[in-house]
Write a structure and sequence with these properties.
Helix content is 24%, strand content 27%. With 282 residues, the chain is α/β, with parallel strands linked by helices. The two termini are 23 Å apart.
Length: 282
């Protein structure tokens, strides 16, 4: 039995299992960044349950590549659903002619928006669009934290910008790669529900089930030093200073019996947890 926790009113509650399973009443927007989609099963699950799908400029190329791959190999007939892209937005300097033609002719609902602002990235434009058109909606970014190092750091930078509200008043944002889920913990106390056995779904998922996470977690003080306290990890800490160039909690483990990881942090930190791989490894 886990120890009693304080009232949820003092904690920010995170239910990434429910959010990935899209339990009743939960809605999110899926943003596809211009990076290779390495875990198609995970991408397909998210695509099928997202309420709106937005490609940040060349992100549309990545979807088009999947469709072309499926057409040539006939490995995944369900990729025909990928035509249901709702929006392509950016300065459109990366959008290929083939992808543009495909989505404008095959998808009746796809809108292409040219935003020439050179002082914002295509990622920023996509997030602003979602928050304008779908206020208070959570956002899942597929392709986050992969590819070039400078682009990955830029995405983390933008995550700090997009989660400026200390209460997540405009919705929460998640970065998903083929190996991990990452999100920003604002200064304060957090409950992260890493296992929810009763979070069932009727959807037929290729990659996501009731326990989608592996054991590895990290708590990274990207912006500035912080002091953290944790419960539920193999190497818990209390009032523990953490900073780049000092000590840092990486490659920690969620204990087998832990359902809720508790984290208190004095400053904003990046939390990342590994996804269970298709082979079932931890």
């Amino acid at each position: 039995m886990e120890p009693a926790r304080e009232s949820s009113t003092t904690y920010t509650e995170w239910h990434p299992v429910r959010q990935l399973l899209r339990c009743q009443g939960y809605k999110f927007a899926l943003i596809i960044l211009n990076q290779p989609i390495k875990d198609e099963g995970l991408f397909r699950d998210l695509w099928n349950i997202a309420d709106t799908r937005v490609a940040a400029d060349g992100g549309a190329n990545r979807i088009y590549d999947l469709i072309q791959k499926s057409s040539s190999t006939k490995q995944s007939p369900s990729t025909s659903n990928y035509v249901n892209l709702n929006t392509i937005i950016g300065d459109l300097d990366s959008l290929s002619d083939e992808a543009r033609t495909f989505f404008t002719t095959k998808s009746a609902d796809c809108t292409i928006i040219h935003d020439p602002d050179q002082y914002s990235t295509d990622f920023t434009k996509a997030v602003r669009f979602v928050r304008r058109e779908f206020p208070l909606r959570d956002i899942v970014c597929m392709g986050g934290l992969g590819g070039r190092v400078d682009q990955g750091l830029s995405q983390i930078h933008h995550l700090y910008l997009f989660q400026a509200s200390p209460t997540y008043a405009y919705g929460k944002m998640f970065f998903l790669s083929g190996e991990s889920l990452s999100f920003l913990l604002k200064a304060g106390k957090h409950h992260i529900h890493v296992r929810e056995p009763n979070a069932a779904t009727n959807n037929n998922f290729a990659r996501i089930n009731g326990e989608p996470f592996a054991k590895y977690v990290g708590i990274i003080p990207i912006k500035e030093p912080s002091v953290i306290t944790t419960k539920g990890l193999e190497w818990d800490v209390q009032d523990w200073p953490t900073e780049f160039g000092g000590q840092m909690s990486t490659s920690n483990h969620v204990l087998p019996q832990t359902k809720v990881v508790e984290i208190e942090t004095t400053k904003d930190v990046l939390f990342t947890i590994a996804l269970r791989q298709e082979s079932g490894g931890s």
